Amino acid sequence: MVSPVSGSAEPLSASGRSSEKLSLPSLQYKMKTDPEGYGTELHLVRSQFYSALELFQQQAALNFSSITGVGADPTVAKDLGDRAMFLAHVTPFYPKQLAEFPSDLAAFLKSSARTLPSGLRFHVTQALILLVNRKIIDIKDTLALFMELQTLDDRNLRKLAFSHVVHSIRRMNKNHKNEAKNRALQNVLFALLQQEDEAKAKRSLITLSELHRRKVWFDDRTANAICMACFHSSSRIMIAVLSFLLDYEKIENDDEDIDDLSSEDEIAKNPQVVISKETAYKAHHKGTTASKKKKKAKLQRAIRSMKRQQRLSSETSNNSYYSPLYHLKDAQGFVEKLFSRLQTCNERFEVKMMMLKVIARTVGLHRLILLNFYPFLQRYVQPHQKDITNLLAAAVQACHDVVPPDAVEPLFKQIVNQFVHDRSRPEAIAVGLNVIREICLRMPLLMNEDLLQDLVLYKKSHEKAVSAAARSLITLFREICPSLLVKKDRGRPVNPKAKPKAYGEVSVLSNVPDIELLEHEDEIDGSEDDESGDEAASISSDDGIGDSDDEKSQYTADGGSEDEDIEDVDDDENDSIDEDEDEDEGDSDDCDEEENDDEDNVETEELDAEEDDDYEEVSDSSKPDDGAGDIGNEDLKAKARKRKFSDFEGQLIAADTSLRALKRLAEARTSGSSADLADGILSDEHFQKIKKLKAKKEAKTALAQQGFKIPSSDQLSFKRVDPSKLEAHIRLKLNKEERLALVKAGREDRGQYQARTAIKQNKTGGLSNRQKEHKKYMPLAAKKAKAQRSRQEKNKKRLRSGKQFRGKKAWKQ
Predict the structure, then answer these.
(1) 402-444: per-residue pLDDT in tens?
(2) Which residues contact 797 (CB under 8 A, 6 or more apart)?
(3) CA dist., res. 123 & res. 127, Å (int)
(4) For the CA atoms of 323, 324, 330, 335, what is the dihedral angle to 10 degrees?
(5) pLDDT at 231 over 90
(6) What are the distances in angstroms from CA 785 to CA 61, 382, 775, 799?
(7) CA 699 to CA 525: how far, in whole Å?
(8) H or E element: which one contains 39?
(9) Which end of the chain is more exposed for a tag (fewer CB within 10 A), N or C?
(10) Does residue 738 have a pLDDT over 60?
């Protein structure tokens, strides 16, 4: 530290004023405008600063301080703070004269921060922040000091230091990121986070979390450091980390904005949604009112399903399902360590639930195997358990197709036995069925035929929540495995022979996905106009005509896919077959029928009986209706298909006898998929075309089917389970305050209750007709007649009262 200069009053050559009359703000302005002319004043203020600093340290050493700081001479603290701020403002204009001032100020604040008065400490901190903002001192040198200032019991100072650290690091990474500098700052905060001191670790965690949330330090190192703070010795730090991780798992309702935006805006935002123009035109302009209504409804369903799928795919591709848990380097070790702490901790139930959620989310996100976790959950699976829906949502998230079904089966059976039975409440049955549906969506092998048929019977329940949950279970198994349902519940599934994959079974791609769409591009584009009439007919007609057309188109599509699989065997031989077909187009129908009969005998040894029956039905139905050219085309297609089967068998025989032939067969199969592409290399145009053709194909399937698409295992791992959706359609009981608020809400439009007489008394305006009659003046003759009538009536009443016959008494008989 520079030795302090005596603060005695000296004549000022530049200003001509004494030091007692010195005005620091005006002098600061003049020194900024003319730095060279005020060197003497700078030397004087600098000397006064160091004198006040030495005096303050002497007073602190002699114990003239109270709890709030130095209490003997408050003017010393005020002068010190003012001159520190003054020198911080003029330091950029005098870099040589004030070269040691920033380091001296930082050292003074670091050594005496806890004993300084709050006002002086705040002013000195502001001066140091000013120096950092003007890049006179580096943030790397002062970061530890500002983190220590946040641990002091001063709310304003803590807020100032925290905002300065965050804004400085944000400003440093605004234009470009300096990785070396960021690593140095991160190392400082990571070291503080690992310390046993709870205050320092907490402030470091808050700073890291804020920078990560603002996507300033959005890297793996920061995410791993935050996640590893779950194992801090302080339970408060652990709870803070768990809360931060679970904040990223908050569910956003995906269905809220479906109906808010117009269809035109959605189509503009998602150009991949492809619906045939003719289909849309027929839905709005052709047919009767009822048929157009049906077509419009079906078109809207298809558009909504397509947009939902595209939104989910875009969310997964854009990483909107982000969580710091995704960046864990050793996810298995993290889960095992946190689970062991969960088993041994004595925290309250809410903290245990937070740990359960983080473990389940990590297991589902990384598709880990933690076999001891499911028996641990089994202890809490009771309908009366507190926060049971969140617990069941965590159990669902921990299920995926990599976990052995035997490990989850006891938990699955307990959910069925505890929630779904006749004596259970409707709310518990609905939640149980929804949980079973979500678990079976991820692990369909847990369900057997008897259990499913028992659960399906709840579709007849009078409770809406129970029946809706049972029907959703039916809808799921119509797509996954229709054979487990009884025939009346199967409906019309897309794939009647669909079965879930066995445990450990993986579909490995040997080629570019959906590359076969390029080979049938003309069929997909040309079939829009042809199939639009069939789609319109299937929408509008209530009879079976449209269904038969759909079945024919479905059969032809299946046949085309079989042809594609077989065509990959040998391209040269297929070309020769096509040439033979072109030469034989002019032959008579009799010759074709004889060839078909001969080849039918060969085919019966190779094909199944069901395929023979389907082929004969289609060929017989197409011959009498179509013309001669159509018959020839059908026969030629059948002939080509049969020749391919026979050639395929010959290739297999040759492959058994020769290894060289086997290599040629493998080369033919690999090159067959990209036969129409130049050199077998796909360009960006090819991938864009595959994307468009896939969107068209999905649009057609969305129009054809009314079920839902089963998400993949990766999509399910990213998907977060909303506990509120497990309680769908359940009417919860209201307490007294909620019922009273509901009653008062219905009385808002009503006035205050009043009796009818009170309303009459407060009536404004004229009299009623009856009141007017009472106040009318009657003529004299009318008054006399009225009085006479009243006298006559009184006399008659008096005579009747004495002589009226009342019957004989019982004792007089």
Answers:
(1) 999 999 999 999 999 999 998 999 999 999 999 999 999 999 9
(2) none
(3) 6
(4) -70
(5) yes
(6) 121, 90, 19, 22
(7) 12
(8) helix 39-61
(9) C
(10) yes
pLDDT band at 22 (very low <50, low <70, confident <90, very high): low
Contacts of 495 (CB under 8 A, 6+ apart): 482
Give the integer Cα–Cα distance in Å for 716 and 2.
Answer: 66
**CA dist., res. 388 & res. 114, Å (int):** 48
Q: What share of the chain is helix, strand, coil (3-state, %, to 5)?
A: 70, 0, 30
Residue 284 is encoded by which pair of tokens? 């709005």
**Distance between CA 234 and CA 196 in Å, rounded?**
8
Q: How many CB atoms lie within 10 A of CB 383?
A: 14
H or E segment and range at residue 66? strand 65-66
Q: What string of DSSP letters covers 177-211?
A: --HHHHHHHHHHHHHHHTSS-HHHHHHHHHHHHHH
Q: Which two tokens stand for residue 105?
A: 């100020």
Per-residue pLDDT reduced to its tens digit, 510-541: 777 777 777 776 666 655 545 444 444 343 43
| DSSP secondary structure letters along 769-783 | HHHHHHTPPPPHHHH
Instruction: Please tell me the predicted confidence (pLDDT) of residue 443.
Output: 93
CB atoms under 10 Å from CB of 386, counted, come to 11
10 Å Cβ neighbour count for 100?
10
Pure H helices in 443-520: 449-456, 464-480, 487-490, 516-519
Give the H or E element holding residue 65: strand 65-66
For the purposes of burial, counting CB atoms within 10 Å of the CB of 92, is it exposed (0-12), middle (13-18) or buried (19 or more)?
A: middle
Which region holds residue 261: left if phi is over 0, alpha if psi is between -120 and 50, else beta? beta
Residue-wise pLDDT tens digits, 252-297: 333 333 333 333 343 334 444 456 777 777 777 778 888 888 888 8
Q: Which residues contact 41 (CB under 8 A, 6 or more apart)?
A: 12, 14, 15, 22, 27, 31
In angstroms, the CA 439 to CA 400 distance is 8
Position of tokens 């998907």? 719
Name the pTM for this structure. Answer: 0.62
Six-digit token pair at 457? 């019977």
DSSP label at residue 69: E
CA 757 to each of CA 609, 687, 732: distance values in angstroms, whole numbers, following the listed order: 91, 84, 43
- Number of Cβ within 10 Å of residue 656's Cβ equals 10
Which residues touch 494 (CB under 8 Å, ≥6 apart)?
479, 701, 705, 707
